[in-house]
Amino acid sequence: MNAPLAGLRIVEISAFIAAPLGAMTLAQLGAEVIRIDPLGGNIDYHRWPLAPNGNSIYWASLNKGKKSVTLALDTPEGQRLAADIICAPGADAGIVITNLPAKGWMSYEALAKRRSDLIMMRLIGNYDGSAAMDYTINCSSGFPIATGPNKEPVNHVLPAWDVSAGIYLSTGLLAAERVRRIEGRGQEVVVALSDVMLATIANLGYIADVQINGSSREPMGNDLYGAFGRNFKTADQREVMLVAISDRQWQAIGKATGLTSKFDMIGPLMNVDLSTEGGRFAARHVIAAVLEPWFAERTLTHIKAAFERTSVL
User: Fold this and answer.
1) Measured in whole angstroms, how far is the alpha carbon of residue 41 from the centre of its chain?
2) Which domains occur in the chain, in start order?
3) Cα 154 to chain center, whole Å?
4) What is the DSSP string of 42-78?
5) Contacts by 216-223 with C-beta closer than 8 Å and gap 24+?
6) What is the C-alpha separation between 257 and 44, in angstroms, rounded?
7) What is the reported pTM?
8) Active-site entry in 74, 117, 162, 247
9) pLDDT value at residue 2
10) Does residue 117 have an active-site annotation?
11) pLDDT of 99 above 70
């Protein structure tokens, strides 16, 4: 395989998801990633899920393709050895990624005294330096209240902000490495998990919607906001998620199900234009009522056959 980052050496001192995922992404692109942990393993070394032998499937999955060394990081000797690895000579070395407290021997200032072009990519919780995790950041985003069929908060099982932060870390590290190659200088780059969340919801228009329209996203179950999409139960008790974003996809649903003529009645009845996303969203309950019997009468196999080689999503 082509390994675009071959030769780049990165030292990782981290725990949990975001930083290990960011470093693993770089390792999968060919970088040499050396993970340093305390003797006996880090805090998440035995995190669930576990294999029958007790090993952490989670930990192994997030650390693929890395080298590993354990040191007595609570001793001067262990700290010196870790600093030696971080500040090793070479134009492609001197890079560290961490989400642990970077202080004392591991601070940017201390390590930069040994290597002036050091790059430190560091993840913190909140922008002010206080602690936070994906599940607390997600609550502050408001998504748990907008998820599900009612206003009882739903704690999402996907650590989306950790995943997003991991990609930010890998991208930020590559940007800092490019600056060093061009200008010869290192730098400390700090990313806050809370800022990753705020930037993301701003980029998706959630903040502007409140600022401009004064609106707040309400929970609507599995209905797709602003278009048509929801789940339907099949005759064999399976669930199918059906989505129509474009008019082509919407027309394909009518053709594949044979319900076009019934759909054509909905627009005039509700005074909406079903060729638009907004019109289909306004009529979503009536559209679903027409589609529900069609799905309920067919198995998943029959539905798959009907939708195959069409534009239906």
Assistant:
1) 25
2) 9-202 (3.40.50.10540), 228-307 (no CATH)
3) 17
4) -TTTTPSSB-TTS-BHHHHHTTTT-EEEEE-TTSHHH
5) 217/142, 217/146, 218/146, 218/151, 219/145, 219/146, 219/147, 219/148, 219/149, 219/150, 219/151, 220/149, 221/148, 221/149, 223/284
6) 49
7) 0.93
8) 162
9) 79
10) no
11) yes
